[in-house]
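assembly run, all chains below
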Amino acid sequence: MPIVVNLDVMLAKRKMRSKELAERIGITEQNVSLLKSGKVRGVRFDTLARICAVLDCQPGDLLEYQADSGPGA
Amino acid sequence: MSMPSLLEAFPARQPAFRRRIVLLSHGMRVLAVVWALWNLVNVVRSLINLSHAPSIAGAGHHGLLAAAIMLAVPSWLLTAGVAWCVWCLFTTYLQGHIFTVGAALWMRRAGALGLAGSLASIVWRRFQILVATGHIHLTTGDLLFAPGTIVVPSDLVRIVFCLYVLALGHVFKSAAEIADDHARIV
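ok done. output:
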C-alpha cells in the first residue's frame, strides 16, 4: 500500500501514548495499534477527524503517499 | 456481522435469541445423524432384498450384488458426508460463528455433497428397479437411459434444495468476506 500512516510519529511529537489516544477518540487500543502499523483497509473520516482534533494536526500530517512503495508493500 | 456483534445489536433479545439458536442447532445436528443412520438402514435393507431377488439369487448373478454394493456404498457415503457437513455447520453456529466464512464453507460443502448424493441416489434407485424387474444385463447406458421413470418430482425438489443451499453458501461466503473487509476499516 503506497499510503503510509505516520500516526506513531505524531504521537511521539505530542508525547501521547496509544492508550490515551484510543480512550480519547473512542476506539480500541488494538485498532490504534493496527492503524499505527498500517494494517488496516481504511480509515473513516470521523475517526480521522477525531485523531486530528486530539493530536491538533492535519490529515496530511498523519497520512503520506509514497509512490515507490508498490502495490504489495 | 459476527454473532457477538449481532447479539450486541439486539441486547434485549440476547437470551431468547441465543436459546433459540442453541436449540435449533442441537436439533439439526441430531436430525442429521438420524437421517444418515436411517439411510444406512435403508441401504442395507435394499441390499438384502436385492440379494434375495430371483434375478440374482436364482440365476446366481453375484456380480450384480457386487455392483449393487459398489453403487450403494458411495451413495450412502455422500449422504454421510452431507450429515457431517450439517453437523459441522451447526457446531460452528453453536460456537457463535454464524455469518463467517467457515460456516459458509460448511454450507457450500453440504449443498455440493447433497447434489452429488441426489444424482447418485437416482442411479442407485434405477439399478434396484432394473434388477428387481429381472433386467440383469445391465450397462451404464441401461442405468441412465433405459425407458421408464428415471427422475421423480421428489428428486427435482432435492436437487433444487441442494442448489439453493449451495447458492446460499456462496452468498454467505461473499457477505462474510465483505464484513471482514469492513471490520478492517477503523
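Helices of chain B lie at 3-9, 14-51, 54-58, 62-94, 101-132, 140-145, 153-183.

Confidence is low (pLDDT under 50) at residues 1-6 of chain B.

not gonna interpret more than that til we talk
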